[in-house]
């Protein structure tokens, strides 16, 4: 019987038109040799590269590569070669079975593998780079995340897991739901900095899905995914982003990192929708818009103004493109109009008086309003943007004129419009009398 090196030498010497019967017999002989003697690391890598470039049946490779070969002999060079091969072969539909098997086999090292944590981290990083290179989530990686995350200790491979989440497989709807449900629980238990990292990755997953929905060609798929696959997945991820933001703001309402992270996430989602002229899916949760208006961050208020301006552009683009708006868009427009009214009321010193016109303060109970007006005389004025603590560093005047004597227009022209571009544009469009 030949040894492994002789059989591998034979395989490497094959040329076009080789004897297929002899080749099959050599494969069977190799399986017998491996079962008796095993493979060393170098021989395994040689066999691995041969298998990827020749049509060795998967049933034989299962014996050679998955069941018989000890995992500790699978070196980093084999993993790197596999990923390079995947990048080169992705256009060939004939290789789909081998591609799927290979990816499944690659992600099968992670918990039971004897490799060190650093080696596992490097492997996960390579998978993340691979997904970002082809700009597509792969089914086997999404499947791996759905199985791994419910049992994750929420510490090991933290950044690598978040990088993998940025590209989700569009047809793995239930697995993505498991991933996002688990991440939501992890987010609620995490430190604010980790919360920002988690939300950032889920936001990237959303923007990547929106982008992928506009692509005409996808890799590693026998057919183009149906349009409703993207619609359902995009809606699911948008819903989970809103849920994550709401829970984060409920548990840490005073943490500026969490608030700015939530508003920034929503802006990025809406900006991607604007770029592709897609439907409005990312509508803000109430707290995401409400908290900035009563926070000490002028930047957050400026970001909310930018958000509302982008929504206005999207709705205008949809009407121009399709000539009409559907019922969902009309409902969303009503909600965003109410948000706009809340900001206008803060400018016009009608925070309390006109609360029924908006949405943020409309449900405040009458007894609370009565107590507020008792404790804070002239509450409309004191809670307006003119006296807002967030704008205090920008609106304080270093001269003898009292702040109460400065009208809104002078204040706006002198300070706010120059410092906050988005808020200035918002006022110009929504309240022209303040900008003229």
Automatic annotation (TrEMBL):
Q: Family membership, please give it.
A: Belongs to the CENP-I/CTF3 family.
Give the residue spans that cross the bilayer: none
At the top level, the lineage of the source is Eukaryota
Report the subcellular localization.
Chromosome, Centromere; Nucleus
- What broad class describes the main subcellular location of this protein? nucleus
**GO BP of this protein:** CENP-A containing chromatin assembly; mitotic sister chromatid segregation
UniProt keyword terms in alphabetical order: Centromere, Chromosome, Nucleus
Q: What is the protein name for this chain?
A: Centromere protein I
**Species annotation:** Leptidea sinapis
């Amino acid at each position: 019987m030949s040894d492994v090196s002789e059989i591998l030498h034979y395989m490497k010497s094959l040329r076009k038109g080789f004897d297929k019967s002899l080749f099959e017999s050599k494969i069977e002989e190799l399986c017998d040799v491996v079962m008796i003697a095993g493979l060393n690391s170098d021989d395994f890598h040689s066999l691995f590269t041969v298998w990827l470039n020749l049509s060795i049946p998967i049933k034989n490779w299962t014996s050679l590569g998955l069941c018989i070969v000890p995992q500790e002999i699978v070196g980093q060079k084999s993993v790197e070669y596999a990923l390079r091969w995947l990048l080169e072969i992705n256009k060939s539909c004939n290789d789909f079975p081998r591609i799927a098997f290979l990816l499944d086999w690659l992600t099968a090292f992670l918990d039971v593998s004897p490799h060190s944590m650093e080696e596992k981290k490097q492997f996960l990083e390579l998978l993340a780079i691979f997904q970002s290179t082809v700009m597509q989530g792969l089914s086997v990686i999404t499947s791996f995340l759905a199985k791994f995350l419910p049992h994750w200790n929420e510490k090991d491979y933290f950044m690598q897991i978040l990088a993998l989440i940025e590209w989700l497989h569009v047809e793995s709807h239930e697995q993505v739901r498991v991933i996002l449900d688990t991440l939501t629980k992890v987010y609620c238990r995490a430190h604010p900095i980790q919360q920002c990292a988690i939300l950032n990755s889920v936001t990237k997953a959303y923007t990547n899905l929106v982008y992928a929905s506009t692509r005409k060609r996808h890799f590693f798929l026998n057919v183009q995914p149906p349009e409703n696959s993207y619609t359902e997945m995009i809606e699911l991820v948008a819903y989970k982003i809103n849920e994550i933001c709401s829970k984060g703001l409920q548990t840490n309402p005073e943490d500026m990192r969490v608030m700015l992270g939530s508003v920034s996430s929503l802006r990025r989602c809406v900006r991607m929708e604007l770029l592709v002229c897609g439907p409005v899916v990312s509508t803000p949760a109430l707290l995401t818009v409400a908290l900035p208006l009563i926070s000490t961050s002028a930047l957050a208020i400026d970001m909310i103004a930018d958000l509302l301006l982008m929504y206005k552009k999207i709705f205008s683009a949809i009407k121009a493109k399709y000539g009409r708006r559907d019922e969902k868009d009309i409902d969303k427009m009503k909600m965003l109009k109410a948000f706009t009214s809340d900001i206008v009321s803060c400018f016009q010193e009608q925070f309390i008086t006109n609360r029924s016109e908006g949405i943020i303060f409309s449900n405040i109970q009458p007894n609370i309003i009565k107590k507020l007006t008792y404790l804070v005389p002239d509450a409309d004025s004191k809670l307006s943007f003119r006296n807002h603590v967030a704008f205090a560093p920008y609106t304080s005047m270093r001269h003898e004129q009292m702040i109460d004597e400065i009208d809104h227009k002078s204040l706006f022209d002198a300070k706010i419009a120059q410092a906050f571009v988005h808020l200035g544009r918002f006022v110009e469009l929504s309240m022209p009398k303040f900008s003229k």
